[in-house]
Structure formats: structure tokens, C-alpha cells
């Protein structure tokens, strides 16, 4: 069902670990065959948040089922991320990547809590015995997706959990353990794979963790469209936004696709054109759906299609990684529309 990693991807992964390496030419990757790569592993189901928690394994089961039965299923290329066994090196490449965004003490804390069988990382963020390992694999999945998008110049979708955009340098929160999007951006820059990375966060909640980690980095722009007021209470536009590297677009409860479309055309796309990114990282949460139980925005699944097409007009070197989205039906339909847009535009 899931195909193995291609040898050419392994070569690119080696290139990334060489800090300060020359930017990899896009032509170094495989020839584009019109397919979209989905990065996924059944291991992501093993992060157990307990009965009744909205951020649950069934979210990924719903997405995978929708994609495997889609009319375009034969145009999807499945890639399964792997944790590289620890080497003799003092710090393995994945831990190096984690430390670009997180304090070593925090990473150690997550590991210890998992090793003790799990517990509450925060009041709303339970973890289980396998969660540390699974969260590391999720980071690897985002890095693999980033490598693939850079190598092929085509969008890649990462269906991984746990999500990451609320995770701060020194603590997890809001169902998030490690800051996947920020880690991918910092790693691409460190390896010279990109020069200007834009992170677009369309999850209905503000990505407070991502913003806090990347906001002072001169080569990273961060933009979020989110409901306000809502969790976590951050993301208000500020005077510092005028440096064109930070754009927070709060929308009120009850807003629908027309509100989003107006903001995207009037503010988001001009912001991105001005920054001129050579890599787009999308924090793709689907909890702005009308049917989502955690927010009050009224997007339809089709809205994620035009949103994706709009952003592909900025750059096709795009990695989309799953953040929130808690109504299984609208989550699966929205990811479907996202992938359809990637295939058809
Ligand atoms: Zn969210």
C-alpha cells in the first residue's frame, strides 16, 4: 500500500544534514510526473491522547481513507518517513533539527514523561508512552516533505500528528509537542536549501509557537489567518508587522469563505509577493470548517481548494503539513480538496 522511500530522496536527505551546504538545484530531484507526494506513517496513530480527546488517531485514518478511495488515488505517491537509528555522533541530525526550535531541557522533559508511560504535558496536551518517538517521526515527516518539495518544485502533503504550531521553545501546549513548521523552515535555511521561507498558517487558531520561534529571523516570514477571539489569545496585528515579515489576520467568529477570500487577495498575497519566498510552508489546519467543534468559522471544504490554488500561484515549492481539524468528515473532504488543487493547478 505504502511505497518505500526512493533512493534519490535519501541522497537529498544526506545533503540537508551538511550544515552550510550549497543550495541544491531544483533539477537535482526526480523528474516531475504530475503526482503529489503524501508523507504518512501508521506510526502516527500511536500517539495516544486518550478517550474523547479531539486530536485523535481517527483524524489520520479519515484522511488516508479519503485519499486512497479518491478518483485521483493513482496520482498520489506515498512516502513513509523513517527514524534514522542513533549514530555514534554526539547529536544525531534529527535532534540537531529539534534544537533549532526547542531548548534541550524541554526535549528531554518530553522524552522522560513518555518513558514513564506518559502523562499531561499540559492540561490539554496528554502524551502516551510512544509520543516522544512519534513526535520525532512527525518532525522527520515534515523534513522529508520539505526535502521533496525543494527537490521536485512540487507541493507535498504531510499527514502527520501530533501537530506543532502551538509548541513554544520551552514547552508544549494546545495538543502540540514539537514545532514542526518552524523546525522545517530553520532546517531548510541552515542547510542552504532555501533563502527566504514563508510560513502560512491557515489553522483556525493563531500559531503562537511558530511565531515566537521564527519572528526575529530575517529570512522567515510568518502569516496567520485565525479566529479572534479564540485560543490561544495571541495573534493581534502590531506595529512591528510593518517590516513585512509578520502578518496576523484575525477574523471574527461567523466569518466565511468570502471574508477569507477578501483578506487573501488584499493582504496575504501582496505580503507574500513582497517577501518573494523560495519555499512555502503551510501549517494546514482544517478547524476553520463550518462543522468543526473547536471554532466558529464557516469555511467549506472547497474553500481549501481555492486557498491552495492561490498560494500555489506564489510558489509550487510548497510543503503542507497537518495541524488541526477535528470533524472527521469535513477534515477528510478538505484535505481531498487541497490535494485536488495541487494536482489540477
Ligand atoms: Zn487549530
Describe it.
By secondary structure, the protein is α/β, with parallel strands linked by helices. Helix content is 37%, strand content 14%. The protein has ten helices and ten strands. The chain has helices at residues 7-17, 58-68, 93-99, 104-115, 131-152, 180-190, 208-214, 257-275, 301-312, 328-344; strands at residues 36-39, 76-79, 118-122, 125-128, 156-158, 197-201, 220-227, 246-251, 279-284, 318-322. An eight-stranded parallel β-sheet has the order 2-1-5-10-9-6-7-8, sandwiched between helices. It has a two-stranded antiparallel sheet with strand order 3-4. Helix 1 (7-17) packs across helix 5 (131-152), helix 5 (131-152) packs across helix 6 (180-190) and helix 8 (257-275) runs parallel beside helix 9. The radius of gyration is 18 Å and the shape is globular. The relative contact order is 0.15. The model is unreliable at 1-31 (pLDDT under 50). The structure holds zinc ion (ZN). Zinc ion binds at residues 203-205, 285, 287, 323-324. It comes from Limnothrix redekei LRLZ20PSL1. InterPro entries: HDACs, His_deacetylse_dom, His_deacetylse_dom_sf, Ureohydrolase_dom_sf. Residues 1-29 are annotated as: Disordered. Residues 53-339 form the Histone deacetylase domain. Belongs to the histone deacetylase family.
Amino acid at each position: 500500500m505504502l511505497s518505500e522511500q526512493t533512493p534519490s530522496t535519501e541522497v537529498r536527505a544526506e545533503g540537508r544534514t551538511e550544515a552550510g551546504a550549497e543550495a541544491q538545484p531544483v533539477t537535482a530531484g526526480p523528474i516531475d510526473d504530475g503526482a503529489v507526494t503524501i508523507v504518512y506513517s501508521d506510526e502516527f496513530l500511536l500517539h495516544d491522547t486518550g478517550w474523547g480527546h479531539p486530536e485523535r488517531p481517527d483524524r489520520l485514518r479519515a484522511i488516508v481513507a479519503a485519499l486512497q478511495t479518491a478518483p485521483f488515488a493513482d496520482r498520489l505517491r506515498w512516502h513513509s518517513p523513517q527514524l534514522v537509528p542513533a549514530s555514534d555522533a554526539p547529536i544525531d541530525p534529527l535532534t540537531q533539527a529539534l534544537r533549532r526550535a526547542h531548548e534541550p531541557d524541554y526535549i528531554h522533559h518530553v522524552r522522560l514523561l513518555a518513558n514513564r508511560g506518559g502523562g499531561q504535558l499540559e492540561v490539554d496536551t496528554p502524551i502516551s508512552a510512544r509520543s516522544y518517538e512519534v513526535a520525532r517521526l512527525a518532525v522527520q515527516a515534515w523534513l522529508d516533505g520539505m526535502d521533496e518539495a525543494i527537490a521536485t518544485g512540487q507541493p507535498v502533503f504531510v499527514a502527520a500528528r501530533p501537530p506543532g504550531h502551538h509548541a513554544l521553545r520551552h514547552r508544549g501546549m494546545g495538543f502540540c509537542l514539537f514545532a514542526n513548521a518552524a523546525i522545517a523552515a530553520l532546517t531548510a535555511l541552515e542547510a542552504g536549501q532555501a533563502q527566504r521561507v514563508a510560513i502560512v498558517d491557515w489553522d483556525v487558531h493563531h500559531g503562537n509557537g511558530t511565531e515566537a520561534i521564527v519572528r526575529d529571523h530575517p529570512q522567515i516570514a510568518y502569516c496567520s489567518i485565525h479566529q479572534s477571539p479564540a485560543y490561544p489569545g495571541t495573534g493581534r496585528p502590531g506595529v512591528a508587522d510593518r517590516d513585512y515579515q509578520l502578518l496576523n489576520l484575525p477574523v471574527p467568529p461567523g466569518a466565511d469563505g468570502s471574508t477569507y477570500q477578501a483578506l487573501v487577495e488584499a493582504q496575504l498575497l501582496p505580503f507574500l509577493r513582497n517577501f518573494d519566498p523560495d519555499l512555502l510552508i503551510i501549517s494546514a489546519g482544517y478547524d476553520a470548517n463550518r462543522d468543526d467543534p473547536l471554532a466558529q468559522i464557516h469555511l467549506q471544504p472547497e474553500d481549501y481548494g481555492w486557498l491552495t490554488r492561490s498560494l500555489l500561484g506564489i510558489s509550487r515549492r510548497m510543503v503542507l503539513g497537518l495541524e488541526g481539524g477535528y470533524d472527521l468528515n469535513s477534515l477528510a473532504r478538505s484535505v481531498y480538496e487541497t490535494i485536488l488543487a495541487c494536482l489540477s493547478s
